[in-house]
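Milestone 3.1: sequence recovery, worked example.
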């Protein structure tokens, strides 16, 4: 015996599909994979699954081969703050990736950060990029994160705020980033090339004493 659940019926339309719209989403990181660029940089490749069932692949690049920090380093610190972890360690595990030749998801050995597999709120933008064949594609990019239950941002959490004040303004500022003005090397493509920003982020000096961290 079953009774109609309208919400479940609606979810069937989006379950398993890909997020394609700019906006604010609440869900969880179901995979946080350690990645290395061809030139020796490091980063984390996330699979985000929204409460609706839609997914997005979001790669951030934390450091270059010489140790310079990219903007993705700041993003990773914000993620760690919002999920309340002070340290993450890579661990061997099983990762899921999309095989373009087989046209399906496959599982294989990989390195993960399981401490990041937690509920999270994300703000997503779109940007154009150049594919390997020279054509232009559009992908989702991570703009910022927030704590899903409180809607506090990382800085608000660190400042021990109890009421969110920044998120609404951040959502209003979300936009599409056109290809114009970007170098071809900014495309990460399928082989995790150079970070989209192309420039190291300023050293934030983020090494607080534990007494400064409210969790």
């Amino acid at each position: 015996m079953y009774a109609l659940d309208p919400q479940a019926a609606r979810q069937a339309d989006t379950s398993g599909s890909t997020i394609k719209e700019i906006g604010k989403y609440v869900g969880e990181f179901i995979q946080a994979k350690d990645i290395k660029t061809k030139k020796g940089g490091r980063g984390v490749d996330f699979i985000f699954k929204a409460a609706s069932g839609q997914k997005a692949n979001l790669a951030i690049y934390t450091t270059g081969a010489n140790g310079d920090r990219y903007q993705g380093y700041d993003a990773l610190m914000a993620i760690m703050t919002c999920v309340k972890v002070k340290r993450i360690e890579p661990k061997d595990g099983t990762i899921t990736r999309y095989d373009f030749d087989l046209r399906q998801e496959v599982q294989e050995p990989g390195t993960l950060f399981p401490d990041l597999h937690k509920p999270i709120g994300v703000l997503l933008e779109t940007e154009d990029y150049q594919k390997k064949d020279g054509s232009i594609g559009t992908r989702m990019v991570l703009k910022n994160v927030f704590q899903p239950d409180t809607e506090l941002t990382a800085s608000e959490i660190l400042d021990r705020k109890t009421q969110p004040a920044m998120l609404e303004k951040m959502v209003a500022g979300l936009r599409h980033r056109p290809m114009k003005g970007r170098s071809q090397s900014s495309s990460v493509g399928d082989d995790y090339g150079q970070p989209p920003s192309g420039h190291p982020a300023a050293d934030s000096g983020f090494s607080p004493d534990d007494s400064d961290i409210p969790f």
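The first helix runs from residue 6 to 11. The radius of gyration is 18 Å.
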